[in-house]
Every structure is written in C-alpha cells, then in structure tokens.
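Q: My collaborator sent me two sequences in one message, no labels, and asked for predicted structures for both. Can we handle them in order? The first one she listed is below.
A: Yes, handling them in the order given. First sequence, followed by its structure tokens:
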Amino acid sequence: MQNQVSSKTLKTNYQVSIKTNTQQIIADEPEDLGGSDEGMQPNELLLASLAACTSITLQMYAQRKNWQLEEVQMQLNIDKHPTETGSIIERHITLIGDLSEEQKQRLLQIANACPVHKILKNPIEIQTTIQ
C-alpha cells in the first residue's frame, strides 16, 4: 500500500491544508514567524508521525503477546542545530502497565523497528518535479 498526501497553501499566511483520501489537517507557523499558529509546524508534524507510528507499533506488538501495556506516553524533540552527520531526534518513551524489565527491553527494540523510524534512520532520496 502506498501512502499519498496532497497539500495546498491557504489564503492565511503560511497555512497549508494537508489531505489524505479520508483526513485533513492544517500546518502553520507560530505568530512570531508570521503565521497564525492554528496548526502544527512542519517539524512538529514530523515528530508527531514518529510518535504515532511508535505508539501504534508498540500497542500492536503488546496485544499480540498479550502483555499488559496500558498506555504509551512519549516526548520527542528535534535538535534544531544538526550535527555533521545529520539531525538528532530525542524520543523518550514511558510504558504504563504491568511489564517486566525484559518486556520493556523488547518493546524498546520494537520501537526502533516501527516503519517511520526505519524511514528516518535510512538514507532518504526525495525526487521532486515542478510544473
């Protein structure tokens, strides 16, 4: 299955409508950068994608194993001053539930194998055309 997203700029400065076949969100910039702060900033959307994918992947895995994972909480940030080798995303995961240390360590391995994590960890080629 191929994911597809379309976007278009809106009349309000820096707002972008982002759509899939069934969903729509608004991206924006904060007021101090000329936006109206009515949607997430692009870097926040990137982090949100990683957080959502990680949380869903952990839930799926724990359910298949019948582990008592009640909730996944996450804090993420991206270093705005990238190193020579690239940017740094810090992801702090809190697992709520009756889990052994061994289960938590396995869930850490699973978190690092979520599809968005894999995309971000591997080289990415962006092929762009313009009309």
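Q: And the one she listed second?
A: Here it is, processed independently of the first:
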Amino acid sequence: MIDLTVIWACIIGFAIVAYVVLDGFDLGIGILFPRLNVGPERDVAMNSVAPVWDGNETWLVLGGGGLLAAFPLAYAIILPALYAPLMAMLLGLVLRGVAFEFRWRDPAHRAGWDIAFAGGSTVATFAQGIALGALLQGITVTGRAYGGGWWEWLTPFTMLTGFGLVVGYALLGACWLIWKSEGALQDKAYRYAGGLGIALLVVIGVVSLATLGLEAQYYLRWLAFPGILATALVPLATAIVTLLFYRSLKSRHEARPFLFALCLFGLCIVGLGISIWPDVIPARVSIWQAAAPHRSQVFMLIGAAIMVPIILAYTGWAYWVFRGKVGQDGYH
C-alpha cells in the first residue's frame, strides 16, 4: 500500500532542498554585497540574480503551505515555537525584495537600498538558521500543543546554526559569482569562496559535534553499531567533495565550484535526514502522528502532481534562457 504520509514528507523535503539550492545563492549575493565595490561590481551581482530571485522563493511557499496542509499538527506546534525567527525571516525577505526593486528606481538613495538589501538578506538567512537549530535542539510539546516559552529558540546552539547558514549561503553566492561574472569581480569571488569554504567546514564540524549531545536518538543514529558503518560515509563524502571543491578553485573552473558547494549542502541535508527521520518534530512528533486525514492528502497530492512539474518547467526554462555571463547592463 502506498504511504501518502511518506510521499508528502518527501514533497516537502524536496521543496526545502529546492529552496536552499535556488534561493541560497541569491541570499548569499546579498550577504556578500557590502564586500563588493559600489558601482559595476554590485550592478553585475544584482543583474546575475535579477531574472530568477523572486521565482526561487516559490519553493519556500510550497514548503510552508505543504506543512500546513499535510502535517497540520506539526505546523500548529512549530509556528508558535518559532514565531519570532520566522517573522524575522519574512520581514527580512520583504525588506530585501523592496530594496531590490527600489535600488534601480530610486538611484538618489541607492546607498540606503544597498544597505537594506544586504541587511534583509543577512537577517532572513540568520533567522532560517536559527529556526533549523531550534528544531534540532528540540521543541517542548505538551499534549498536542507547544509547551515552551517565547525565548526557547534562543540558545548558543541556534546562534551557531544561524551563523553557519550565513556562511553557507555566502559561499553559494561567491560560487555563483564565479560562474556568472568575469574579470576583477570573478577574481574576488574566487578568493571569497576559498575562505568561506574553510569557515563552512569548521562550522559543520562544530554543529555536528554539538548535535550529538542534544538528543539520545542523534547519538544512536550516528555512532551506534552497525549503523555507524553507513553514517560514516557522510563525513567521508564530505571530505571528498571538499577536496574536489578546492581543486576546482585552484584550476579556476567556473561552474564546478558552485556544483560542489551545492553537494556540501546536500550532504548536510542528508545528515539532517539521518538525525530526525521519521520525525517532523525531532524526538517529539512523527510524520504519521502529525499527518492530515487520508482524503485530504489525496486531494492535495492531485494538485501537487499538476503544479510541481509546472514550477520545475518554468524554473528550468528561466535558468536556461539566462545561462550566460552577466555584465553591468545584464546578461550577454
């Protein structure tokens, strides 16, 4: 028998992965923005994401809406637990979106809009990392509701995960600029990618070690025998991808650093899945406990089967059309 609950968990997981892949680099552009020279460098960076940035956030809507529709109990617990960081994320996304548009239409105040674009991107990213860390460290559940306090999400661990995601998205942004830019900006992006790659590996190591002490199931999933024979492949793959990443930087490949950076994110997501599956709220609520009724899942699955391929099609077409290098006046 087909388990619709697992299918919906995979759909939401896919939406989250797609969001990280597609929106991570353009948030990273915003994080790096203060490090780019005023004028042509910033214009090229903005032009490189101008055709795709708003469409990338479609996946965030799908993930959040899918959680509400397919796992209403999880949504009802997670939202009040993470209300503050989620609101900060949404406000940051709104601010960067407004700044993105007004930067071109209000050149007299472009310096202010640049600050707003960088600030909104950084706040949104940091808030996403905090939300992930708060989910990993555990949410207090009483009965079928959130049982913790307003500030339960605020801990050193969540600050660390927030910082880690900022570093990670900045790395994606630098690698995107390597792929899409030329000349001095590309050289600068190569330098930033090298340093950010090291910083990300350090953060991944620290977060991974800290995570093992948060819940007993994390420790058992990763270090208990014989499971460790499989989970050990994740750090091994991370080391291999890291080696390939730095070789691609040294050889000055243009597309490969971005692809290898995405692979690092993919391995982090695999590690997250190993830690929490099949829970939607780790060690508290499983996907089956949080799932919507069967008929609701069937009804929504029909809509998802129609819309997700359409979204993939127009997203792929947009990236194909704007596949070249970028200049100050737009794509070549």
